[in-house]
Amino acid sequence: MKRILVIYTGGTIGMARLGTGGALVPVDFNQLYGLIPELKELKAEIHFQSWQTPLDSTQMTPDHWAKLATHIFENYPYYDGFVVLHGSDTMAFTASALSFMLQNLGKPVILTGSQLPVNIIRTDGKENLLTSIEIALLSDDLGRPLINEVCIYFEYKLYRGNRTYKHSSNSFKAYNSPNYPLLGEAGLELRIHTQYLLPKICDPIDIYPKYDSDILNISLFPGINFKWIHQAIENAPQLKALILLTYGSGNAPIDTELKAMLKVLRDRNIPVINISQCKSGSVVMGKYEVSQWLLDYNVISGFDMTREAAITKAMCTLPYVQGVDSFKEMFQKPISGELTLK
């Protein structure tokens, strides 16, 4: 019988509304079979573990990503798949980070959560949990785990984790993946679109838990005052990388102060990454004059990466490289299906 480890880090899916006041309290996972009796029908040995102090996902930090990655890595030989219960607000960040920290996965790591507590009549938590476990149990024709990557499952849809973002705070359809197709869908039956899955890898799993969070993310807008941002950067010796959220296909205004800022970063060998504010599409630097000039300052294209993937990949790349050239080479190399090279 297959063994699945379910790890509760925090979030609504592990909460229940109890008492006359209706306050949300963490679920005792020893009582979970009482709240979700359908768990008994799964042909699997399911083990539940909860963080001692469950976190609202807004409190999640890179330290917690490394802790979670290490926990999965240490338990990897003993389970056939992993389901991580997580708050929805930063789930896409955690999924992206895990996809870079845990490389050469041969088993599924499925993140899921819910918008409503598990004991509410209309909860989405039960279905999300049950189906995530079902997906983690799937095998290919050779008996190997069908999925060998980090995914997010939410509201009948299976996504590549590092291709998603949360697009709604009040809908069960909370996630979207505009630049990569769905990996699967749950209807009357589970349908996995195997042509979009990461290929099987023969190398053993490896872990890269180090990170450097001394990065800055700036979103451009008309009228943005680059002068004080320039001043702030000049007085931030600890800065290791900058992510620019630009317009359209990677465009930025040809601004004297922005040029001066980018020159400072270039002279200090600090990588600058170009990510589009558009949720769909890719950065194509040089397509227009307003992106061509960025190449003169060694700005690095992030292609079609999400903001979440770009931020976490930058954090996870910095400890393992020296210099802008080696950073660029590793950052633009697909590690776990997070980008499409143009």
Order of helices and strands: EEEHEHEHEEHEEEEEEEEHEHEHEHH
Intertermini distance: 44 Å
CATH superfamily of the largest domain: L-asparaginase, N-terminal domain
- How many distinct helices? 9
The top level CATH class name of the largest domain:
Alpha Beta
Q: What portion of residues belong to β-strands?
A: 15-25%
Tell me how many strands there are: 18
- Return the domain count: 2
Average pLDDT rating: 93
Task: Write down the CATH topology of the largest domain.
Answer: Rossmann fold
Helix content: 10-25%
Alpha carbon gyration radius: 21 Å
In terms of per-residue confidence, which ranges show pLDDT below 50 for 5 or more consecutive residues?
A: none
Spatially, the strands of the biggest sheet line up as 4-1-5-7-8-9-12-13
Structural class: alpha/beta
- Major sheet summary line: 8 strands, mixed
Q: What sort of overall outline do the alpha carbons produce when their principal axes are compared?
A: globular
